[in-house]
Amino acid sequence: MLGRHVYRVSPRENGEWGVHKDGEPTARGSRRSREQAAQLACELAAQDEPSKVIVEEGGAIADERLFGADTALELERRLEGDTSPSPTGEPPGRR
User: Fold this and answer.
1) Of 35, 61, 62, 65, which has the maximum CB count within 10 A?
2) 5-63 pLDDT, tens digit each
3) Domain that includes residue 66, residue range
């Protein structure tokens, strides 16, 4: 697969929070709280790099975390002279 694997955390009608991987027909799981669902999504994403977790709430992105190096972004960073390690589990643009 090119690009990052995307795991989405979003509220369900029953009050729980679901974890879905883009392109898959069924949820990877659900949890009682947003934080618990985000933790599950981060655990899955860390084992499936390069990936990212997007937490959705109210139709907007409430949080986003990146895992592993994205080849295109790594090339861009190196061309700009950035030699710091790739972000892991960090919000984009922050180190």
Assistant:
1) 65
2) 999 999 999 999 999 999 999 999 999 999 999 999 999 999 999 999 999 999 999 99
3) 5-79
Q: How many domains is the chain built from?
A: 1
| Residue 95 belongs to some domain of the structure | no
Q: What is the length of the chain?
A: 95
pTM of the predicted model as reported, rounded to 2 decimal places: 0.76
C-alpha closest to that of 4 among 74, 59, 56, 63: 74
For residue 16, being part of any structural domain is answered with yes
d(CA 62, CA 34): 11
Residue 17's beta-bridge partner residues? 11, 31
Burial of 48 (0-12, 13-18, 19+ CB in 10 A): middle
CA dihedral 85, 89, 91, 92 (to 10 degrees): 50
Closest to 2 measured CA to CA, from 62, 92, 59, 72: 72
